[in-house]
Amino acid sequence: MTRLVSSIICVWASLLLSISAQYLQNEALLQAQATCVEYLGIPEARLEQYNISVYPPDRDTMCMIRCAGIVLGFWEDEQGLLIDGAKQLFPDSGDVDLVAQKVLHCAERKLLSCDPADACARAYYSFRCAMRKFEPSNSALSTDQKLTPEKFLKAQIVCANILRIPHDHLKLYNQGVYPDDAETRCLLRCIGVRLELYSDAMGPNLDRLHSEFAIDQPLEEFKTRATLCCEANRPLIQDYCTAAYRNLYLCFREHFNAFTSQNRQTLLSHTSSPQTCIDLESDILLYGDDV
């Protein structure tokens, strides 16, 4: 009986400590918001919104978030989102490191559409990612499976050689530019097949794409949006290459842009070298006969 009582006390103590820690984190945010509202001259009525976690995307709110981020140590204009400081904002989670990874993915993608000089907007959208409640994920890829810029470049070079893509196109590709022309459409089909991101029979590999590019998004939401995009493309598809270009690249362009932007230096510093006939023959066999 004594052991049972002791166990119950320990459980309650742990629960109270957890609640207290969460309360202190929220309290710190509330205090920072109040300070920044006063400092920036924002109407006090807006503070009531912020205190119930309502953050509309207007200039006052964006700049208030930037101010609060500086106060709490989760934002710095030059460095951007400071993930260690942002951890205090995370909803309760059993795996803080996984949530941090998802937050960074989310922020990288959101900031692509922001003016680099607009610190308020950048802070705001990064904050929204940090405050988001992410669903548990069981589809994380191992380090060996994860797509790297080196793997992507290798697939791109192999496919460009197989398809005899002009060299000037490669310069565009290394900058993350994939124009809607016959060569590029077939190149993206080849890359998708080689990297197991796409197949002619099944279309985009949504589970793999989610694990690679969008672990910060709920899986079902990701799949729903992708399915709607592919359905909208159906009347526009005339051949396998067009299908791959529209359903793989255009439907997931936001994610591909984030990947190329994040790895821009690696992509731009690469200089392609021609493969031997033996290498090409092997790669053609790997890719298939219907290139």
UniProtKB/TrEMBL annotation:
Domain of life: Eukaryota
Keyword Disulfide bond tagged: yes
Recorded family membership: Belongs to the PBP/GOBP family.
Listed SUPFAM superfamilies: Insect pheromone/odorant-binding proteins (SSF47565)
Listed GO MF terms: odorant binding
InterPro entries: PBP/GOBP (IPR006170), PBP_GOBP_sf (IPR036728)
Example GO biological process: sensory perception of smell
Keywords in alphabetical order: Disulfide bond, Secreted, Signal
Gene3D superfamilies noted in UniProt: Pheromone/general odorant binding protein domain
Species: Aedes aegypti
Organism lineage: Eukaryota, Metazoa, Ecdysozoa, Arthropoda, Hexapoda
A GO cellular component entry from the record: extracellular space
Name of protein: AAEL009597-PA
Signal peptide: 1-21
Compartments, as annotated in UniProt: Secreted
